Automatic annotation (TrEMBL):
Species name: Drechslerella stenobrocha 248
GO molecular function, one term: 2',3'-cyclic-nucleotide 3'-phosphodiesterase activity
Biological processes annotated in GO: cyclic nucleotide metabolic process
Protein name per UniProt: 2',3'-cyclic-nucleotide 3'-phosphodiesterase
A Pfam family recorded for this sequence: CPDase
Length: 192
């Protein structure tokens, strides 16, 4: 199902990794359950509203790369993506880029808000950008854009209300299906 403006309707989420091959749900559940995760749940701290060029990143809330979030991404990528060992996963998680932006894969953690087809008029996209930014502000979402990550231990930043959270759930979704079908395309789940 899409909205009247052509935007895809989907569950907001943070993509931890891509490139996980499809398998039977039983195999994926076993793989996901076997990922060696830290006892510390991932810390999610909102950074800023970010506007991208790719369908998947048109409007997002960028997330600070806390140590626990990077650890989660490395563990998942090393365990679930073929030919990706620990060192390759660690290198990937430190890159601040996406294939749509540079042709290279990297990790920019974000909470997806809007997906947008290329055939939508540019003027509509500008209206959506303004609208989403207004909605984020009106909802009281607290962004930590001005705080620099190099001198802040994001694990020590208290989160609550509308500035982030700790923990969550890992969900493997068959993203080869249309976005509007993702809610019913869950292949495996694991609480953090």
């Amino acid at each position: 199902m899409c909205t009247s403006t052509g935007q895809a309707d989907f569950q907001p989420h943070i993509t931890i990794s891509s490139g996980i091959p499809l398998s039977t749900p039983e195999d994926l559940q076993s793989l996901l359950s076997g990922v060696n995760l830290s006892d510390r749940p991932p810390k999610i701290v909102f950074k800023r509203v970010r506007y991208g060029t790719a369908f998947w990143t048109k409007v997002t809330i960028e997330i600070h790369k806390s140590t626990s979030l990077k650890d989660l991404a490395v563990a998942c990528r090393a365990a679930l993506v073929p030919d990706c060992d620990q060192a390759a996963a660690e290198e990937w998680v430190e890159k601040y880029t996406t294939p749509a932006e540079s042709g290279e894969a990297g990790f920019i953690p974000h909470l997806s808000l809007v997906y947008w087809d290329e055939d939508i008029q540019r003027s509509d996209y500008d209206d959506v950008r303004v609208g989403v930014s207004g909605d984020v502000n009106d909802a009281g979402v607290a962004l930590q854009e001005g705080r620099k990550g190099a001198d802040i231990d994001w694990e020590e930043v208290a989160v609550g209300n509308m500035d982030g959270w700790s923990g969550g759930k890992l969900v493997l979704v068959d993203t080869t299906r249309p976005v509007e079908a993702w809610k019913t395309s869950i292949l495996a789940e694991r609480e953090l």
